């Protein structure tokens, strides 16, 4: 069976969308605790559990964590897809058995349960846990660090989401990105960085089959306050995963599939196994650019403007009634020749009306954009609920 066929029919359908909290995953944890060791090595700042799942019995210890930023849930969904895959008894049994015998994979599905509930990047105290690696001022940070010190992993997986603003010079979006964090200010290619780079190159090799030209690499400027940089400095290979945007997939249901394939590749369940990747292949992955917006309207005639301009709109994610609403905000007005839109329209030199009817300004919320002289021509319209 092709892995894509397995995924299509068997992914973990019980969690979906962008808003994933402890309440969503507790039923899954209750089910899996019959077959896996699930501990609670720490509590959040408001007293919520921070569960840790142990998968496998091998000598190679891997430590992963998702939703360090509470509003970045795609990799959490992918982790439960992975757990469902290694728990089934019908397909890829040889590969799964090899994985379970070689590795012990410890993973925090939600490291920041308070931030997940509030749908914020920070925790309940408004602290970014990925800038707390040195201060260890928060209970969640201490929980991760204590687990790291106790397990002494040979590899760490720092699992995140990235915004839909990243892409490449050729106009393709960055759907999945990786980073082998720096270990010092000079960005020295240490042995631990090389290991992470080789693993990233291996995952990229598999992902090119599914999203060719849509895998990116983050800038590796050193910041010791970041967890990945701290662990890499300690000599432990660390990989940053960033789940991004794919073709109007604002719920990140396709991107979770690509992260799932990346995890399978990392653990040698799919992909080439014989020939190890050179760490230099890592640098063949293009570096992310901030050159995308969710929507761009081209060739607009604005009042008091002689030249035609483009209007870029970016969605702001807002939690409302346990759903994520995508609120459109004017991000930039200008030529925008080096920018791409996930969706674009051409006003063909027409003047426009906006709703609410006010002068178009950066930072304003937009409900609708119409042709000024033909209101039946709608260039942009805010959806009433959430984007599918």
Automatic annotation (TrEMBL):
A single GO BP: proteolysis
Catalytic-site annotation from UniProt: 242
Ranges for domain Peptidase M14: 7-266
Domain of life of the source: Bacteria
GO molecular function, one term: zinc ion binding
Family label: Belongs to the peptidase M14 family.
Protein name: Peptidase M14
Organism of origin: Aequorivita antarctica
């Amino acid at each position: 069976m092709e892995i894509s066929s397995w995924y299509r029919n068997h992914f973990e359908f019980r969690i979906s969308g962008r808003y994933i909290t402890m309440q969503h995953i507790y039923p899954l944890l209750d089910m899996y605790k019959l077959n896996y060791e699930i501990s609670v090595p720490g509590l959040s700042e408001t007293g919520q559990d921070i569960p840790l799942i142990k998968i496998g019995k091998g000598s190679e210890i891997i430590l992963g964590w998702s939703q360090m930023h509470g509003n970045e849930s795609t990799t959490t969904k992918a982790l439960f897809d992975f757990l469902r895959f290694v728990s089934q008894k019908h397909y890829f049994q040889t590969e799964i058995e090899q994985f379970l015998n070689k590795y012990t994979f410890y993973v925090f599905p939600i490291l920041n349960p308070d931030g997940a509930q509030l749908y914020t990047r920070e925790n309940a105290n408004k602290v970014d846990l990925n800038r707390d690696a040195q201060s260890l001022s928060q209970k969640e940070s201490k929980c991760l660090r204590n687990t790291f010190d106790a397990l002494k992993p040979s590899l760490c997986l720092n699992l995140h989401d990235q915004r839909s603003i990243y892409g490449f010079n050729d106009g393709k979006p960055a759907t999945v990105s990786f980073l082998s964090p720096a270990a010092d200010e000079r960005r020295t290619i240490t042995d631990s960085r090389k290991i992470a780079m080789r693993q990233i190159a291996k995952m990229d090799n598999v992902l090119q089959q599914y999203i060719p030209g849509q895998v990116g690499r983050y800038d590796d400027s050193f910041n010791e306050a970041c967890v990945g940089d701290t662990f890499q400095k300690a000599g432990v290979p660390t990989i940053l995963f960033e789940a991004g945007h794919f073709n109007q997939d604002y719920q990140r249901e396709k991107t979770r599939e690509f992260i799932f394939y990346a995890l399978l590749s990392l653990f040698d369940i799919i992909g080439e196994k014989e020939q190890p990747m050179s760490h230099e292949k890592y640098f063949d992955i293009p570096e992310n650019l901030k050159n995308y917006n969710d929507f761009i309207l081209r060739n607009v005639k604005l009042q008091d403007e002689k030249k035609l301009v483009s209007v870029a709109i970016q969605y702001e994610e807002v939690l409302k009634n346990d759903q994520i609403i995508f609120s459109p905000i004017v991000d930039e007005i200008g030529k925008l020749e080096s920018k791409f839109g996930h969706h674009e329209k051409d006003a063909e030199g027409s003047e426009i009306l906006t709703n609410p009817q006010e002068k178009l300004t950066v930072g304003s919320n937009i409900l609708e954009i119409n042709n000024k002289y033909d209101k039946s021509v709608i260039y942009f319209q805010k959806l009433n609920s959430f984007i599918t």
